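[09:14] KT: can someone run the structure on this one? pasting the chain below
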Amino acid sequence: MSDLVHDLSGRARDMNAGLAIFDKSDTLLATNDKQKTIYPFIDYSRSVTFRDIVWECVRHKKFSSDTIYSDPDRWIGYAENLRRFNRFWQSFTLHSDGRVIQITYERLEDTDGWWYQIRRDVTSNVQNSVRGGFDSLISLNGGGVLPPSGQPSFVVRLLDALPYPAALLTARCQVIDGNQSFASILSRGDGLSMVGGRLCIPNAPTEQAELAKRAAGFFRRRTRTPITLRVSRLDQPSPYFATLSEPPAQSVGNGGPMSGILLLTLVDPDILPAVSARAVADLLQITGSEAEIALALCSGRSVDEIAEDRGVERRTVYNQVSSILGKTGLRNQAGIVRQVTMICWHFGSRV
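[09:31] RB: done, structure tokens below
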């Protein structure tokens, strides 16, 4: 197995990434110097397990998510199940110092249950991508973690890869396909329905007209940045946030790019994974107070409602929104909502 360890170590070195290789009992077999600089408080001279590493990270307040600290055993169990049911996985972890670490995990074939993790700092990449329209289906520089031959050839439907309701539409709002969560919303008639195969907002004609206009003109715009709209719901005060965007340049499991097709995603603010204001502030490079405003917008609150909740003048909130737009380069409140939503799905607490 020395050749395998040497090969993985070389790949990690080329990417300036930390490497940890474990056996089937989760005992650390090998690591590199970069891993030790990311987690310098771990004593690698003794026998160390994956659980030991996580507990040391908890003890040193390394993570930004409060959920991990409230129930570390449950979080570790979640990570163990992830390895049990997936051969390859990639995610991002936000550290308490504001750094974003990309974690790649893979179980190794032709070994007795060995697996490895590669960790690398992608903070600047994430911050730039968040400001540029962070696409939740595309891992940041993820293709460079392993050469294609080293990755499993999963075939995943584009829509099933999303954690929230999603559908593919034509420019005339004709529904081509949708995932199970999207179908569930349609079946409830909760603000959205289908008439003659087209997506409609029957109880809000103004919103319906805006959806039709935006979909029809999406590909005629000079820049095809995502568009976020509010969709009123029948029984809930908070709206859905509907985002129209292009599907990823290479569709997953489809074999070719999609042209002239829109990706519609729906987010219910009431069930977004929780993320701290500090995390939003770190990723968007804004102040803590501005991050609280951004999170309030993402929860469906209007500027007037936010001003009332905070006991300040309406103009004060508008000034803070303007400051967020100026610092991030986003165009409007919908852009703020879209970016904070992506942050919640990537870095929010799910367990």
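[09:33] KT: thanks! The radius of gyration is 22 Å.
[09:34] RB: yep, looked fine to me
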